[in-house]
Amino acid sequence: MDELQHDPQIIETLDEMEVRNRDKCSVTETLSDDVVISETEIEETMQFRDEILETLSTIDTIENHLTSLDEFMNIVCSDVDSMIENTTSIKQKLHNYQRIGSLFQDYMKNIVVDRNLVLYICKKPIKRGYRKYLDQITQMLEYMENQDGKETAEEMRPLLNNLRLVAINRSYEFLWDKINLLRRPNTNIQILQNILKRYGFLFQYLLREAPDLSNIIIEEYNEAISLIMDHYFKIYLKSIYKLGIQGATKDNLLGSSGNVRNPTSGNLFALGNRKDILYSYEVIIPHIAIEKGIKYSFSEIFSSMQKLLIDTISSELSFQNDFFSEGCEQIEYIFSTPIDYCKRVLNSYLKTCYDTIDIIIMLKICDNSKVIMSSRGFTYLDPYFAETRLSLSQQLHLVIEKNIESIQNMNTLTFESTRPHYITRRYGEYISSILALVSYLGSGDRLRITRALNLMAEKMIILLKRVSQNSDLILKSICLINNYDLILTIIKESEVDSPESSIFEDLLKEEIRSFESMEIKKYFSELIAFTQVNGERYTKSTILSLVSGFSNNWERKMERIRIDVMGYFTNFTVGSDILRLVLTRILYYYKKLTDLVKSDPDIVNELVPMSMLTGTARQLVTDF
Predict the structure, then answer these.
(1) C-alpha span between 580 and 588 (Å, rounded)
(2) Which residues sit opposite 244 in a β-bridge?
(3) How do strand 261-262 and strand 266-267 relate by DSSP bridges?
(4) Backbone angles phi, psi at 260, to 5 degrees
(5) What does the pLDDT average to over 544-564?
(6) Closest Cα partner for 464 from 412, 516, 510?
(7) 574-577 contacts: CB < 8 A, separation 24 or more?
(8) Residue 354: count of CB within 10 angstroms of its CB
(9) pTM of the predicted protein model
(10) What is the band of 620 on the pLDDT scale with cuts at 50, 70, 90?
(11) How far apart (Å, rounded) are the C-alpha atoms in residues 42 and 564?
């Protein structure tokens, strides 16, 4: 037994059997599990089949319901179609009824005359609401024109025509009465025109329904307003003309003798504050000016006259455009006399006017007035502005020519002085004033004035040379320097761009050089003579005498030159410059002398130190 137990073959066989048994058990367990799973799935499948059968039954029921619903919807759609057809028919009938009602209402409205309409057209006072009733009559009559043959329309037509005639008559009488108020004294035209504007629809009604009556209204208005404007302008221009100051006449030219002054601006040829007139927009009120004792230059009167004219005409043009609405054909009739008054006033003044500045200012005022009218869209006054400008321009060039002639023909025999001639200041202020205003003029006027001023400068230079005629050349030079300097000073102070400035500057420099040479030669002629020939032909003794004389007298002579220059020249700035030039020239000559004699110790010992001369010259200029 023990041997069997330890037999390897038996042991191996037993192991295999044991393994087989284990495998058999495992298979049995697996089959047992599969059988259980299969039974469960069969049960679930049967359950699912039952659910499907139940669902199919439900679907059949729903299908039956949907079939019933479809049949019902077909019945409903049929009913809706029937209702739509009925609604369309009803809507069409309603529209027809409304159309008939509207036509009947319009017919009754345009045929039947309302009691209120008769009352307002015939009895009630005319107010702004009157327009509604005029439009209603017009509308009714136009409607009846399309209702020929209808008995009711024919019966109402005479009544409406009678109402139309009453409306025309009342409109005409209302406007006539208002316009006749213009003829009353002290009537405020602007207020009455504003009232008429509010009732412009009455004139438009007359213009449409009774053109003959509208023409009568126009004629009546133009006649009334024309008489008012004639009277008003005549009184006003007469009143302000009396407030004028006597301007420059033919006796107040540049070459006129005596003192020529303007009561308002002093010197008649100076611009002063007269330019401010161009920026003043006030109209002169005569009675206030009389109370305050105010007087005006003619340019101020002209400015007030122009402003009144353009404002009055602009206002009237605006009114006629708003009220009559058919242009301004009658403006010339209304304002022909006032414009003629303005022309007469200007021409009366220009006959004796020789005030160049006033004329230029008036030219600018005229141009400004034209620009204002153009900006307002009115060109009616353009011919008047052109004529006025031509008159002013002709007088301007005539006055300038007369001033040139006065310079040319001026008598200078009575003038014996080195001081500036009285015509010099006049000339400087005159050309400065013109140049300050010339930019306001047109290109043609500017060109003519530029040529005239060039000619005037030539005549003025000739005159000043005649004025300065003197046997003493130094006095002649002093006279010219003072006159040229005054002209340049006035032009510079005026801050104007003057082509004449360069001419007089060159002349001034030339005369200063001439005076400088003569003044030095007057006191240091020996020094100048020596340096001019570089000391040639001069002996030592002569040179020593020259140096000794200079050393003893140079300081006194320089002081004398300072006193001379101070007394000669009216402009201290020019005098100081001339003194500096003269002393500098003396130092130059003396420096040249020292260079020529520096090789001789005896002469050098007699020389005045250059630093002493320079210091003294500087002190003299400082003390001037």
Answers:
(1) 12
(2) 296
(3) antiparallel
(4) -105, 115
(5) 89
(6) 412
(7) 574/481, 574/485, 575/624, 576/621, 576/624, 577/512
(8) 23
(9) 0.73
(10) confident
(11) 154
